[in-house]
Amino acid sequence: MERKGLRCIFVLLLPLALESADIPVLNSTKDLRNIEFGHRFPRHGLMLLHFVSGGLNVDNDDTLIPTFLPERGDWGFHHFNNYEVFPQLQNQNRQGYYEVGNINTPTAYSLDPYVTLSYYLTPGNLERNMDRLVVRTSPNSPLLEAVYITQHYRRSSEYDHKNTYQISPALLREIRTLSQNWVNSEDVFLYAAGYDVDSRTFTWNCSATDSTYTVEDTGRMTLNESPAIMKGAVVNDHHTACYAVVLQVKSTESGYARLRWANVPDSLLDVGVMLALFNKDGKNLLSRSLDTRSYGTYDTNQYLNHGLQVKLLSKDGSDVFMRGPKYDDADRKVPVGIEGYDASLQLYTKDGYGCARLFIKKTFTDWKTDLRLKYSWVGFYTNHNYSSHCYYTYQYAIYFTKQDDTYDIYDKYDIYSYESSLSIQPGAQARFFLKETYDQTLAKTKPWEW
């Protein structure tokens, strides 16, 4: 009886095991043309695949060498526990599956704006956040073993097995080659992958509530499902080129938010629109009329902080025509590795000041007592071109403060931080030194962007 019971259990589990292991492999952009994944606005899957592929090197042996670390939470990667979708791991203690693509989370602000744009253009749309990319890490090295694309079912958080695919090294190499050889590589890739450009017509021609055109005509949503983007967006039968509008938060030279806008249509300027800055909690911090200026910058007195967002409002503030991407406190830069150690360094801002995070792998338990790190320190620089001895301020690494585990993505790393007195500004940089001298620089962050 016991053996028969085990046999029955095995028979019941066998179809599930076969389904999870038998995942189709896509080998070229031509293969992407024949699947549903990310092919229509406002789906973001193909943009996500292009973006992540840019951070992967593929050598002649088809080895996947990432410039990012998914277990560190780069770009919003987090641990993926739905093992029934993908093949079983060889060693669950030393490798894992990591997922990225959920834009509705603060950890995803570091994704490139072209990945998140359709999400912010279409509030309420059920397809704007369906797509995901999953990677499988290696148990013995920082390499990746596999890359997958998948999606949720509509109106569900469950994953769609029939629309799950493995991306071959050949396809990843092809996408990366496009990125290196074309200035507008995103558009070239979308064309090659068969993205339905016509489905994006709505973003080129935003509809007003009194317009005869409805978004349901293209199979997406009704006006009532997305009032923020469409109400009043067309004036006197002139159309708003929503997809071309640029709304950004940047940094001034003193740690304040600089608002940048471009390509605001005349049809909106003629009736009056306002530029507004909102914080992560949705509070309007300031508003100002654009008058007749279709592009420009405006320096505010608001400190740079995570989650700031620029919105284009109607003159009375009752309608939102467009949202820009939410501001990432690390300037959309992944941490840089500290040479020779299971640790990395990241420059970020809080209340307009330059701060630093140390990501310490949890297996590196004795880093504070390691004699080689006893005098290590982080220097903060107003300009990345300055010599090492020209720092603005510094702090010894052992005095960084351990942070609470805010997100479950940090299951492999402890995070230590320090808030300096340096006002964050374009060109700012943090550097990690092994000794009190300046000759052993183990890490330099990328300069803060203008």
From TrEMBL:
UniProt keyword annotations, A-Z: Signal
Signal peptide: 1-21
UniProt key word Signal: yes
Name of the protein: Uncharacterized protein
Organism of derivation: Oncorhynchus mykiss
